[in-house]
Fold:
Amino acid sequence: MSTDFRRSTVYQIYPKSFCDTNGDGLGDLRGVIGKLDYIQKLGVDYIWLTPFFVSPQNDNGYDVEDYYRIDPRYGTMEDVEELIAEAAKRGIGLMFDMVFNHVSTRHEWFRRAMEGDPYYKDFFFFRKGKENGEPPTNWESKFGGSAWQYVEKFDEYYLHLFDVTQADLNWDNENVRKEVQKIVRFWMDKGVKGFRFDVVNLISKAAFEDDDAGDGRRFYTDGPNIHKYLKELHDTTFGTDAQIVTVGEMSSTSIENCYRYAGRDTGELSMVFSFHHLKVDFMGNEKWVLVPADFQKLKNIIFQWQTGMAEHDAWNAVFWCNHDQPRVVSRFGSEGRYWKESAKMLATIIHCLRGTPYVYQGEEIGMTNTDFTEISQFRDVESLNHYQILQDKGLSASDALRIVQIHSRDNGRTPMQWDDSRYAGFTAEDGAEPWIGVNGNHDRINARQQLEDADSIFHYYRQLIALRKELPVIALGDIEPMAEHHPCVFAYRRTYEGHELIVAANFYGRTGEWKEAPDLTGFKRVIGNYAEESRPEGGVWSLRPYEASVWYR
Ligand code: TEU
Ligand code: CA
Structure:
């Protein structure tokens, strides 16, 4: 395991959809333990596990009822300890997912608040409505509808930026911050090597005012005390152990704030996830529409974050996929003839950037979006809410379904495809029906097949991960965008102490000509997704469909 996060790669697991060992149709922690050898083959340094704490599972564990206990559906504390120990034997550290913007309304703190205990009421945001009977502000929940829920017995509303069963915590209350610190230290003592902090830039709320221009996010995103709270968390918990790596999930953030969240010496976090590059198929902030991906915008955003963060000595997490995103091969690549080439091309772009790459379960075998044809197959609360909201706005059921099929978070949550058996090896063939449907293409797309095939997407990821360890220019080099305005080429140069790396990719399924291509004299190809190399001829580089290659000198 590399303890320098700049040289590391992280594998993300959504345990509910990874591997089910007791045949109840839900993935579990023993399933993760059983697949550690598989993960080790990839060569990653860390595993980020999404939440498995006690939870009513209204948001699949992001609604935490008790941070100190394991949801029995996932396993036991002994399983967690064994997982940490078994991973450590393989040189892999565990990163846990800490959801501290909100808790489940079943959490003891919220239950006490609802009993009227003033100490716990102040853990949350209870506010009076407006004179006219409307909620305190016009803010919208990220999952649709008002962000305020009325409580008759107090004649007050509580704030929930996400589901109504996810009540926002009041970080301005020092007692909340102390409780959070206790939880982080508890898991540090168990040997956890890193933390991912869920929507952590939303924890400092500014004024509770109506937003005339939007959904309210400007009043709670990157709020007034955010840097103070992160520094305090750093100083009182993980900052005392230099081995611990942290990543903050930053919702609708600004790059200026991220210089501080993830600056080398700012005393906040190791790195940040930002999402602007994954909104290039939205309309502004509106996700529930169908618009083609804007390639120019995608490059602009990625390059802006790459160079901006580098100039400020701050660190990015780099990624295409997670449990909230559609599958990248369906989104920016191809499910058809060039499925394999496009999956490898997309991997090449991410894994040679400046930042810590994250691989999301199934990405390494090119898993695609769901093949669901009916709304009843979807499980995610966000999808189900918006399916209704779209129809309330006048869309037909079939148009609403089409949008959900493209954008649903369930695209990333179907069971991991281990083999071609009935339930894709996620659960036993005689086990219960998986909690969410298995993609029918597991007969073709599965881990068993790809482990055997030397030319598979899996082995390509393995090589990319190894390359980052071999060539310091990938982990540590500067970055310079190339072909910035080219309509189909994604390319950049990395440099480090006299070493040079050129990454060139064709983002589309037709041949593309790169006219002012770089001179590759003295370079050798270190990886590429076509067996035969191509090089520029007379300054023109003809790149085959989805071709990607990396050149080193
Ligand atoms: O996600 C934060 C978040 O705002 C988005 O990923 C969101 O799901 C999407 O943009 C809405 O369109 C984190 C977790 O990753 C997610 O799974 C949780 O549901 C959410 O926080 C609440 O805890
Ligand atoms: Ca299970």
